[in-house]
TrEMBL record, chains A, B:
Belongs to the homoserine dehydrogenase family. Gene3D superfamilies: 3.30.70.260, Dihydrodipicolinate Reductase, domain 2, NAD(P)-binding Rossmann-like Domain. Residues 350-424 form the ACT domain. Pathway: Amino-acid biosynthesis; L-methionine biosynthesis via de novo pathway; L-homoserine from L-aspartate: step 3/3; Amino-acid biosynthesis; L-threonine biosynthesis; L-threonine from L-aspartate: step 3/5. InterPro entries: ACT-like_dom_sf, ACT_dom, Asp/hSer_DH_NAD-bd, HDH, HDH_cat, NAD(P)-bd_dom_sf. It comes from Acidimangrovimonas pyrenivorans. The keyword Amino-acid biosynthesis applies. Keywords: Amino-acid biosynthesis, Methionine biosynthesis, Oxidoreductase, Threonine biosynthesis. It comes from the Bacteria. This is Homoserine dehydrogenase. It is an enzyme of class 1 (oxidoreductase).
Length: 428, 428
């Protein structure tokens, strides 16, 4: 095992350059830990001449990542281009066909084509490793697939899009509306070119789908993730939730229930004093719950050059050490079809609505809830402007269907102004 | 790889029985994840006839764990007896000599004999895995050795003795003195037979020494860990620390400095709103800091049947999958001798003392601090009984040596009653 492990790195953006820097800075340490030197044979990116934060002149160059994947002097193909299709997919397939393991940070690629790629890789006897695809520097894929392998997993939860968490905590701290903070985040370069990937929950949904596949032994089913972004979260709800002891997070939840697999990526209330509630700014957190281990909480930087490159290198060192395992923790062919739960598990809900200031208005709302079979845990009515009064309700456990039913009944009462807001309270 | 992986489990206490239960409950899942069935061939414990919470009648029995380790039908020796010497060591050595990998929860064994055992295991071409030895169910050995393998580690910190954290948080919550809560913990069965292992910091010190070896590529050096227990922590200090925005934790800190390796297991103040400060009860937390990844925080149950057995099974599944790596993340022969730092890194300190109620007393203390080169960040003087006044001081960064110097100067002033208390504030 003293032959060097030779990397071909496709994509020299933030993560690619971060990876190059680690290889250059820590050659001796990596050789000691990996049991063999780790070197870069060649790289590929859109522009060869671009000014970069690392010297790549000593490496071979390929304009085409597919050619890079096929090079004889590349043992491991490191795919850091991104994009669910196109060159990233073609080059990953080429590497697998050439019998080479792949290390990737590409959550979209695996969320959409994970099953097909895993089957191809396992047929070729190589692995695809993707620690960097989920929650940046947090070694959560490893913790779930390996560390907790002795557990039947009960639930996986996570705040896995730092930009959304930044927006939500900044709204609360500065008392600013969503639109203002969204523009701030854009100006700071925190948003993807297509911001829907972030604020629409798609990026985080990709990550959740990968975690769910490992946790429950099911085929990746991103198309079965219930997706709701943070665009409709108002500063009012953030403030009122805080008054009731909660924070709003874009929370991913995956759990296997008697009704099937639940995968949700949506704004949820969590207790302000829970680890998830205390998470500020761009930091990520993943919570893993197993039948033996109980609850494990992992927290760290979810993006950025250093953290994501750290995850890439963890995978590279595993390959250097000869550690290999099925891509989703068991053979891809043995993964079960994910049967989505049509009804989500019951939970308490937060409701906010504005009532006309008329005698009996609150009674009508309470009656509508009762008719929908929903009982009230706590209620607050706030001081109000001349003709309307905001009301907050925390319900006991109920279902999303019953909440939707109650909201239709509210409309029939004629005392509710505008559309009521309902947000699930995740019990953490 | 369809031959079953056959375990021999020595020690059927809480962790041993927990491990048996997982193998029995999850046979199909373990086979799917490990790529081969995981079975138990034989077990060993002090008493064969003891009533146990799992049916072991289907397994072979050995009175002698050494004989168990040597059995032809045992592929992996699972050592869950405990004890740094005696049968645990003899049986581990026998397993290694027979060319069998060892999975152990035994922190004392590895803290005291890790180098010798690792060298023997590597010479025999087998691994020793010990996830269960540190922080129970938290996969921290894996996170540090594998997930963060691309990082130069800067610092490792941890609250890794649940009993101590239970005692400290219970003192604060209930306002009870140490002695009372200590007796409570004993009655609840939370304490080791020799409670010094817990409250003296020895158990947590063993764990810190193992983490430090992996983090810094140094030979395990438990004898170089500065140990201080929680016996001297008073309810007064817990309350005063809380007033100043801190909590007191038995905190392990290992860091490599220009002066050498620092390993401390001692009561420290940490900010009350930090993840470490918020840790309540018996839960454990480990903080890993790497040059690329930044800060990773891992939290979970640090002890108990399920969590510790989960860690054991994670190691077993790694072996079933054929993942092997050097015991401390690099070959034992390449580990450097740990050169202990003779001077600890500077930090702010918390000082509490009682002054005689005489004009100029505070000035004398302030002068003594200034003479020792220590500047004051914050100071509080409390309302007092007739003749004495408690004073709290938070210093700017200084060294333990300067603090000791200042305390000697305090004694010369004649205005300080009793022994001043000084506790390091760890900057987290």
């Amino acid at each position: 095992m003293t032959d060097p492990l030779r990397l071909g790195i496709a994509g020299l953006g933030t993560v690619g350059i971060g990876t190059v820097k680690i290889v250059q800075r820590h050659a001796e340490m990596l050789a000691r830990r990996g049991g063999r030197p780790v070197v870069i044979s060649a790289v590929s990116a859109r522009s060869r001449s671009k000014n970069r934060d690392a010297d790549i002149s000593g490496y071979g160059w390929e304009d085409d990542p597919v050619a890079l994947a096929k090079r004889d002097d590349v043992d491991v193909f490191v795919e850091l281009m991104g994009g669910s299709d196109g060159p990233a997919k073609a080059a990953t397939e080429a590497a697998i066909a050439a019998g080479k393991p792949v290390v990737t940070a590409n959550k979209a690629l695996l969320a959409l084509h994970g099953q097909e790629l895993a089957e191809a890789a396992e047929a070729a006897g190589v692995s695809i490793r993707f620690e960097a695809a989920v929650a940046g520097g947090i070694p959560v894929i490893k913790a779930l697939t390996e560390g907790l392998a002795g557990n039947a997993i009960r639930r996986v939860m996570g705040v896995m899009n730092g930009t959304c968490n930044y927006i939500l905590t900044r709204m609360e701290d500065a008392g600013l509306p969503y639109e203002t903070v969204f523009e701030e985040a854009r100006a700071l370069g925190y948003l993807e070119a297509d911001p829907t990937l972030d604020v629409g929950g798609i990026d985080a949904g990709h990550k959740l789908a990968l975690l769910a596949a490992i946790a429950f032994g099911t085929r990746v089913a991103f198309d079965k993730v219930e997706l709701e972004g943070i665009e409709r979260i108002s500063i009012d709800d953030i403030r009122h939730a805080a008054d009731m002891g909660y924070r709003i997070k874009l929370l991913g939840v995956a759990q296997m229930t008697g009704r099937g697999l639940e995968q949700r990526m949506s704004p949820c209330l969590v207790p302000a004093d829970s680890p998830l509630g205390q998470l500020q700014g761009g930091t990520n957190m993943v919570v893993l719950e197993g039948d033996s281990v109980g609850q494990i909480v992992l927290r760290g930087a979810g993006a950025g050059e250093g953290p994501t490159a750290s995850a890439v290198m963890g995978d590279v060192i595993d390959i250097a050490r000869g550690c290999d395992l099925p891509i989703f923790g068991q053979l891809a062919a043995s993964l079960a079809e994910a049967v989505p739960a049509l009804v989500t598990a019951p939970a308490p809900y937060y409701l906010r609505m504005t009532l006309v200031d008329k005698p009996g208005a609150l009674a009508k709302v309470a009656t509508a809830l009762g008719d929908a079979g929903i009982s009230i845990d706590r209620m607050r009515q706030y001081g109000h402007s001349d003709t309307s009064a905001p009301v907050l309700i925390v319900t006991h456990r109920t279902t999303g269907a019953d909440i939707a039913h109650a909201i239709r009944r509210f409309e029939e009462t004629g005392v509710v102004l505008g559309a009521p807001v309902a947000i699930r309270i995740e019990e953490v």
